[in-house]
Amino acid sequence: MPVNLTPNAIATINGGDVNLKPLVQVLDIKQMGSAQERFRILVSDSVLTQHAMLGTQLNDRVKTGLVKKGSVIQLIDYICSEVQKRKIIVVLNLETIIPDCEIIGNPKMFPDATAHKTLPNTNSVQPAGVVGYNNLSSQSHGNNMSSIQPALSSQNHGGNVQSFRPTLSTLNQGSNMQSFRPALSAQTHGNDVQSFRPTVQPPYQPPPSYRNHGAVMKNEAPARIIPINALNPYQGRWAIKARVTAKGDLRRYNNARGDGKVFSFDLLDSDGGEIRVTCFNAVVDRFYDVIEVGRVYLISKGSLKPAQKNFNHLKNEWEIFLEATSTVDLCPEEDGSIPQQQFSFKPISEIETAENNSIFDIIGVVISVNPSVPILRKNGMETQRRILNLKDGSGRTVELTLWGDFCNKEGQKLQEMVDSGSFPVLAVKAGKVSDFNGKSLGTISSTQLFINPDIPEARDVKDWFDRGGHDVASVSISRDCVSGGPKNEIRKTVSQIKHAGLGRSDKPDWATVRASISFIKTDTFCYTACPLMIGDRQCNKKVTRSGNSRWQCDRCNQEFDECDYRYLLQVQIQDHTGLTWVTAFQESGEEILGCPAKELYLLKYELRDDTRFADIIRSRLFCQYLFRLKIKEEMYGDEQRVKITVIKADKVNYSSESRYMLDLISKVRRY
Amino acid sequence: MDTSKPAIFVNGALLPMHVRKRVRTVIQVMGSDRGAVVGKSPDDLQLVVKGSPPSAPLTNFVEVIGIADSEKSIQAETWTNFGDAFDTYSYNQLCQLANGEYQHLFL
Q1: So where does this one cross the membrane (chain B) (predicted)?
Q2: Per-residue model confidence (pLDDT) at position A362
Q3: Which of A308, A347, A403, B75 lies 20 to 30 angstroms, CA to CA, from A224?
Q4: In this complex, is the C-beta atom of B33 within 8 Å of any C-beta atom belonging to chain A?
Q5: What DSSP designation does A345 have?
Q6: For A659, which of B89, B97, B101 is closest by C-beta distance?
Q7: How far is the C-alpha of A68 from the C-alpha of A370, rounded, in Å?
Q8: Domain A487-525+568-661 bears CATH identifier 3.30.200.210
Q9: B88 close to A (CB below 8 A)
Q10: Using a CB-CB distance cutoff of 8 angstroms, which residues of chain A are in contact with residue B94?
Q11: Out of 3.40.50.300, 3.30.450.70, 3.90.1150.10, 2.40.50.140, which CATH number does the structure's domain A348-476 have?
Q12: Which residues of A touch B106 (CB under 8 A)?
């Protein structure tokens, strides 16, 4: 045997020990839960085995193979707690001593008899159970029981029914087992197992239907303070000591189950664990006034539920729901080991590659603050918005958008500071990344802003700024960085549009083409359109003469004296690769011809000034434009035809076009 | 296009490489000094352009073609007004292309 596991470790832990730091062996690992990844391991002290849940912070040890079947580990932080009347060890910290090891000894399941589901014979079980307990523990060091062990261990893994059952059933098998017993008990090593018996619950419990009547020992001692990161729903009794870092407003809600009120606050403990606590209704009344930001509290009892990640961005998969039995006690003395706030600052440059809606802590120097402006939200409510710019040592600046109350509280203060010539440091806790106009950061309800906070990071960034960071050019990752038109602008040539088969997919393709106009169809260049408004948009349907001089719209079913004239312009465009027909409607038609369709219509059909009309058309020929095109294949009768529509036509800006082409040249692959 | 007398695109920094050769550049006119026009090259260096400017007043930007007679001056034969707005950045890039790896593409 290469290593000695700590004798009686399982029994000792079940007896309530938390200081033994025993060596145990992992016999099995199971992944639990669907929403939250969590691992349950079966640990052995070579005599007994017991299930243990690993804290999620230890998941990586399993995933990286540091903890696997056969590993000998040292339990560092752990407690034994009772979950659904089953004892289970919750492991908060461990060390791998031997990564891979043969199974040591012939361990059996710890007789946590509280979980029995069915028992063959209630009458005979009670005494048998006690015997069985001794029986199990006595097996520890003897090998003569090995013949029945396979059966036992196979049942251990079988499910929730604890392994104690096989022992019981073997007892029922009759007398040949009995003969073993004297020999076994003779092998019992000392009394150490026995001495822990009082804390181990009697191995018998009535069948399930009577379970609620079973005597449950109530532990009246105060619960042990554990780190927030060790909290999990499988723990009955716990207490945490933590500082309130944020307190939400009291909110009232109304849903199918009626009215209610809710408030929540965030906690931080000395190990850096953070968690949100939520109270509803009557519990709100008990605790709302008690909770003060910055104070330290002892909190005990409450249920743990999965954190609502869309509202709660703390680094914890759980959220505490306080209940009527919960206690929240203010710790009068200040606990310096718990920080006032916990940040995980990232450089601004990291926002650039961050996903939309991710949550960031940022610290930077405020270099400008825009005035607060009212914004109409989608739901019709008006809110305030204020944009400021933050700069840090990463060579980037980012826009921070303050919403609502932030504009008038912190925003106003920051504006006054910047206006008076100072550059305050701003720490943003939990800002949300937005990819509108480049990348920017916005406040959400759980965002916290700290102006010139007294933390080392603030001093660092201030130092950097004062030592020259102020003058360092930095690139904005917000709207400024999107230069040269829309992001999705894809340059194509005319032949590329044809040869790449653009427009063949379900969605239209978009392309920008620099081309000259080579021909404009003039026999029909516009149509008579309905000028009536439908909602906030003009109808624009084609209208027809209704007998006399009036116009009739079939869609609006109305007649009117004057109709509108809108472009429906067929244009041939040409670049160095080829030539294609495109269609330009009203706005883009006007961009191409430089005058309204009506003016051109009147010129041609009422004034019959063909010379001026031709001049206007000719003046556009061989002009270069940047055409933004929408390309889509459509059915015309039986025929599939690629239709190219001009969405926008801009006269080429030679300066910016030169820069664009110079940039292209610099990107040419060199051989 | 007259290819009989090719002129090399230069900026202020490239001019010294082409002394006694025919060059062309665009200057931003800053003033005149003893009969010569003082201007700023596309790369922001000061150049002196000698010769006789056209009778029409010079615009802000002027293209000059002539012989580089020193590292900082050109004896101009042709003066062309390029107007008051000109993208010197692109022109400077062009000068570098014309003297760099794409030199063979230029006259």
Answers
A1: none
A2: 93
A3: A308
A4: no
A5: B
A6: B89
A7: 57
A8: no
A9: no
A10: 662
A11: 2.40.50.140
A12: none
